[in-house]
């Protein structure tokens, strides 16, 4: 008699997928990208969402990818107890990846997923305000600098 792994709970709403994508930690392997969102303990366990865009192949290939990812996730999370939302984003390489690699990717995602990168560029509020550079004491803003350049250009042409 064959014993089956526990049934997976699926993410069904777009907002659940977006929450994992926007606020979750990320893990990338050669075959797929995984987004992990830690949830407060509500007793539901691990919920999983699978996506395979048209870049991954035609409908037959995308469905095969999803079946392989479901099976790998079922095996990888059979003993996991933490409450997390996991979104797996398939790549074209997923269909040719080994089954063991997919299971390993899911297991590694729980421990190695890193927080998303913070914004590289400072926000306009955090940028330093330029000192007054004009002769009349007004601040040298981009608009006044552009106007000054175009005025110089007009005087050179005449």
Secondary structure: elements and pairs:
Blueprint lengths: L8 E2 L3 H10 L1 E4 L3 E7 L7 E6 L7 H18 L7 E7 L8 H14 L29 H16 L1
Parallel strand pairs: 1-4, 4-5
Antiparallel strand pairs: 2-3, 3-5
Helix pairs in contact: 2-3
How many whole angstroms does the radius of gyration measure? 25 Å
CATH topology of the largest domain: Ribosomal Protein S5, domain 2
Beta content comes to: 15-25%
Count of distinct strands:
5
Distance between the termini: 94 Å
How many distinct domains?
Answer: 2
Order of strands, main sheet, comes to 1-4-5-3-2
Which bin fits the share of residues in helices? 25-40%
Order of helices and strands: EHEEEHEHH
Tally of DSSP helical segments: 4
Query: What is the makeup of the main sheet?
Result: 5 strands, mixed
CATH uppermost class of the largest domain? Alpha Beta
| Arithmetic mean pLDDT | 77
Features:
single chain; 158 residues; alpha/beta; Ribosomal Protein S5, domain 2; five-stranded mixed β-sheet; 16% strand; elongated
What's the short story on this structure?
The chain contains 4 helices and 5 strands.
3D architecture notes:
The chain is α/β, with parallel strands linked by helices. It folds into 2 domains: 9-112, Ribosomal Protein S5, domain 2 (2-Layer Sandwich); 122-158, no CATH class. It contains 4 helices and 5 strands; from the N terminus they run E-H-E-E-E-H-E-H-H. It has helices at 14-23, 59-76, 99-112, 142-157; strands spanning 9-10, 25-28, 32-38, 46-51, 84-90. The protein has a 5-stranded mixed sheet, with helices on both faces. The longest helix has 18 residues, at 59-76. The termini are far apart.
